[in-house]
Design brief:
The chain has about 160 residues and is an alpha+beta fold. It has a single domain, classed as CBS-domain, CATH 3.10.580. Helix content is about 35%, strand content about 20%. The strands form two sheets. It has a four-stranded mixed sheet with strand order 1-2-3-4. It has a two-stranded antiparallel ribbon with strand order 5-6. The chain is globular.
Length: about 160
């Protein structure tokens, strides 16, 4: 079976995913950052009741907050989150997740089922961990740059 076929058949729910990290949209930016730091998380999902309203990531922190007025820390997190983030289902394929992350430049994707229940937040780290466990030899023999080719055999 090819790697692409395996990735297409592997469902996201089969990955070893961490518990979901959420805060209500009324939390302040400062409170949200403290939670992310204490949980050593690169993202947090913003909810209103049981509904996903947005996502706040390290990238949001760097692009929207860093170097700005410290008064921002008292503002509601909903002013800084990415609204209506792209989501996948836990039953989406791993290949779908990789493709979406690559095309969208995402490092985190919330997972929501057909009943709009929030399950996890898939991270690029989850995918890398899975791939390194499933394909250790293939990863070790990859060139440093994907487009790199060798005209002659390398090594002794």
């Amino acid at each position: 079976m090819s790697t692409e076929s395996t990735l297409h058949q592997t469902k996201i729910r089969h990955l070893d995913l961490n518990n979901i990290l959420t805060v209500d949209s009324t939390y302040s930016l400062g409170e949200t950052i403290k939670i992310m730091q204490s949980q050593r998380s690169g993202c947090i999902l913003i909810t209103g009741g049981s509904d996903l309203l947005g996502i706040f990531t390290e990238r949001d922190l760097l692009q929207k907050v860093a170097g700005k007025d410290e008064e921002l820390l008292n503002q509601p997190i909903q002013k800084f989150m990415t609204i209506q983030p792209t989501v996948l289902s836990p039953d989406s394929s791993l290949l779908d997740a990789i493709t979406l992350m690559y095309k969208g430049g995402y490092r985190h994707i919330p997972l929501i089922d057909s009943e709009k229940k929030l399950h996890y937040c898939l991270s690029v780290t989850n995918i890398i961990d899975y791939l390194s466990e499933q394909y250790p030899q293939e990863l070790l023999s990859l060139p440093p740059r994907p487009e790199q080719t060798f005209t002659e055999p390398d090594g002794a």
